[in-house]
Design a protein that fits this description.
The complex is a heterodimer of chains A (about 280) and B (about 425).
Chain A: H1 2-10, H2 15-35, H3 40-43, H4 58-65, H5 69-100, H6 106-118, H7 121-134, H8 141-145, H9 152-163, H10 167-175, H11 180-191, H12 193-209, H13 212-217, H14 226-234, H15 242-273
Chain B: H1 6-24, E1 49-56, H2 57-73, E2 77-84, H3 89-99, E3 105-108, H4 110-118, H5 137-141, E4 144-145, E5 148-149, E6 152-164, H6 165-171, H7 179-191, H8 208-218, H9 236-250, H10 265-272, E7 277-281, H11 285-292, H12 296-299, E8 300-303, E9 314-323, H13 330-340, H14 343-353, E10 356-357, H15 362-365, H16 372-380, E11 384-385, H17 393-409, H18 414-428
Parallel strand pairs in B: 1-2, 1-3, 9-11
Antiparallel strand pairs in B: 3-9, 4-5, 6-7, 6-8, 6-9, 6-10
Helix pairs in contact in B: 1-3, 1-17, 2-14, 8-9, 8-17, 9-17, 9-18, 10-11, 17-18
Classes of the chains: A mainly alpha (about 280), B alpha/beta (about 425).
Chain lengths: ~280, ~425
């Protein structure tokens, strides 16, 4: 408490750069939302205005009526939810195995995970697509979901976090006769809340915003996800409907904001504790 | 048509897909340079089965209407059109080719064709499918690789000079017909109130070359020799073209940092009078009429591009339809392409999209010859040029973009730029 008072009294000036930073981060976002309510002319007028002069709902009306918006939305939700659930399960299982179970090749396996973390996705892009196609999955939800069910970053986060759970807890459970699955589900998972929340947000975010993969893997419009759908309707060959684009971006951001508000507390805790030994 | 991110993504992905297709698919033969034998002729019987088509942007929106007409004429066929975002179409097409999981037909830009053909992605056009003499000659040329044709032109995209007629009148100048008049014209518009006399793309990756190359052609220069075996960039004509481009900035007619970005803002800036003149495509007409309403005729003038020693040559691009080598229904696909290439359907497609038809006879059917604004484009089409149809074009065009920026900034002389272009582009090569 004493420290906090001290800060409040003598370091108020620290808030100036923080406020500037905040403005820099938030302004583009505010501009996006306000642009979603502006007619095209106003967006391109070259003047920076925070509030629309001639506010319009036409962009949103277009977004919801002109295109098959609901099907893009449903596709995005199905894919993101499946990817998040898959990651929560598989990454935590892998993380548990890599940190708490002794088996030959454990270090090598972890090294493989770390390597995968460092390979840029574009490198594996075409091989992955060929693989998915040969499995007969092109243009199915399988193609959109399966390749992303266990992200290397998620495995890393979970391994670091679960590694911090005291061995004595797990050994006690083992002495009481619990099997590995029982230990995993009743001891490890309940203790991993913050890391799981972090993982859920990160994976939801990346799946929700993913553009290139669904663009290629979905071969008909009924399989498009939101980002692909919005690119399709807002950008023509020689014109871009910026209002529609910004309205779409605003709608895309909403679920992420809601998710983050719910998981915010865990998220910060998770980020700050993983990797600390 | 003009797509920005296009070039980089295309270069990256085609490089990857070329490698992959080389080992992954068993199409036989390993160079694309061997002249392909045209497939057997397509008969006149009705098309059958499902025909899947990829079409981009507004073209993708309207294509289903042509598909419906096709289905009425061919009751056993079903045309399914999937819309694809323009910017990312090359990625989607090259990945599809690499995996062998393709639709039957796709729309594409001519500058992307050669790379896909090199990856063995497209089938040659069957003999006698279309009458080539009924199309714009340069658009047909842009479908040919080593003598074989791999696509059928759907629409053409050429650029003319749009200018503020009212400002020109105020300044007492008329549309420039020659190079000599261009700089004074631009300067006069600037004096009459425009911030930019002539809007020039200078540092736009993926686009500057579309603005710069026509100056080379207008000076009588060419990128390659007639056989497309070597570059011919170190010539007096090319130097003159580059010098003309640079002079527009040096004379203060155009800004050093001119840009067409953000996409869709050119018409706004022209309507506002910020831009005095700009060389751009026919898609500007619709938005300008919408922005200016009754004032359009009074404020906007359209003229063919000013001529240098080599004539008033303008950029030609457009849209073509190609059939994938792995198409499941090639017979139906070619029949659909033949259908959309009839003057009636080409005219209807043009009416739906406001694109300029590649089929010459469709201009009359669509009544395009009646519209004075569009008629200028018809004149311009008599004098156009296209970049060489080669797989390395994405890489080469980005080299041109780079030199364009340096010329505009005045950090290189036209002589050095020509020598540099010759050296850098030769290093990439024509194959």
């Amino acid at each position: 408490m004493a420290i906090r008072k001290n800060i409040r009294r003598s370091r108020w000036y620290l808030y100036i750069p923080l406020l500037i930073g905040l403005a820099l981060t938030v302004l583009p976002f505010v501009w996006m939302v306000s642009g979603a309510f502006k007619p095209q002319r106003e967006i391109l007028s070259g003047e920076f205005t925070l509030l629309p002069e001639n506010g319009t709902l036409r962009n949103f009306a277009d977004l919801f009526t002109r295109v098959d918006f609901s099907s893009y939305f449903v596709n995005s939700v199905v894919v993101a939810v499946a990817v998040v659930l898959g990651n929560l399960l598989f990454c935590s299982m892998l993380g548990y195995a890599l940190s708490k179970i002794e088996f030959p090749g454990r270090r090598a396996l972890f090294a493989v995970v770390m390597t995968m973390l460092m390979v840029p996705t574009v490198v594996t892009f075409i091989p992955l697509f060929v693989l998915v196609t040969r499995m007969g999955l092109a243009n199915t939800f399988g193609a959109l979901i399966l390749p992303f069910l266990a992200a290397p970053l998620g495995v890393f986060i979970m391994r670091q976090f679960i590694g911090d759970i005291p061995d004595s807890l797990i050994e006690a459970a083992r002495l009481d006769g619990a099997g590995e699955f029982r230990i995993f589900f009743t001891v490890v998972i309940p203790l991993s809340g913050p890391a799981l929340a972090t993982l859920a947000i990160l994976q939801f975010l990346s799946s929700w915003n993913e553009f290139l993969w669904p663009l290629v893997a979905a071969q008909t419009e009924d399989m498009y996800t939101l980002p692909v759908g919005i690119a399709l309707i807002s950008a023509g060959a020689n014109t871009v409907n910026y209002g529609l684009l910004l309205a779409g971006a605003t709608v895309i951001v909403l679920p992420i904001l809601v998710l983050f508000l719910f998981l915010q507390r865990f998220f910060i805790q998770g980020i700050s504790t993983t990797g600390l030994k | 048509m003009i797509i920005k991110k296009y070039a980089t993504g295309l270069a990256l992905l085609t490089a990857a897909s070329l490698t992959l297709t080389a080992c992954g698919r068993d199409t036989g033969g390993d160079t694309a340079s061997a002249p392909a034998t045209p497939a057997a002729a397509i008969d006149d019987s009705p098309a059958k089965g499902e025909i899947t088509v990829w079409a981009m942007g507004g073209e993708g929106d309207q294509m289903p209407k042509i598909g419906e007409a096709f289905q009425q004429a061919n009751p056993e066929a079903k045309v399914t059109v999937t819309g694809v975002p323009w910017d990312d179409a090359p990625t989607k097409i090259s990945t599809a080719i690499a995996s062998g999981q393709t639709p039957d037909v796709t729309l594409l830009n001519p500058d992307a064709l050669a790379a896909f053909v090199a990856a063995k992605g497209f089938a040659p056009v069957p003999a006698g499918l279309i009458d080539e003499s009924g199309f714009d000659a340069n658009a047909i040329a842009a479908t040919k690789i080593d003598g074989a044709s791999y696509a059928v032109p759907l629409y053409v995209d050429t650029r003319t000079l749009f200018y503020r007629k009212d400002l020109a009148e105020k300044a007492g100048v008329s549309a420039p017909k020659t190079w000599a008049e261009l700089n004074t014209f631009g300067a006069a518009l600037k004096k009459a109130g425009a911030k930019e006399g002539l809007l020039l793309a200078t540092g736009e990756a993926g686009f500057t070359h579309q603005v710069l190359l026509p100056y080379i052609w207008q000076a009588g220069g060419a990128l390659t020799n007639a056989d497309q075996t070597e570059f011919t960039l170190d010539t007096p004509q090319v130097i003159e073209g580059l010098a003309k481009y640079q002079s527009l900035v040096k004379d203060g007619v155009s800004s050093q940092t001119g840009t067409y970005e953000p996409w869709g803002s050119v018409e706004e800036r022209l309507a506002r009078g910020e831009v005095g003149s700009v060389v751009n495509g026919s898609w500007l007409i619709g938005p300008l009429k919408e922005l200016l309403g009754d004032e359009f005729d009074q404020k906007i003038g359209i003229a063919t591009v000013p001529a240098g020693a080599g004539g008033g040559v303008s950029w030609l691009s457009g849209g073509q339809l190609a059939v994938f080598a792995d198409a499941k229904n090639p017979d139906g696909a070619w029949k659909f392409i033949r259908f959309i290439s009839t003057p009636e359907q080409a005219a209807r497609f043009s009416e739906l999209t406001a694109d300029l038809p590649a089929v010459t006879a469709a201009w009359g059917v669509a009544g395009l010859d009646q519209d004075p604004a569009v008629a200028v484009f018809n004149d311009q089409l008599k004098s156009t040029a296209t970049p060489p149809v080669i797989p390395t074009w994405a890489q080469l065009s980005s080299i041109v973009d780079g030199y364009g920026e340096r010329l505009a900034r005045g950090t290189i002389t036209p002589q050095d730029a020509a020598a540099g272009l010759q050296k850098d582009m030769s290093a990439v090569g024509l194959k």
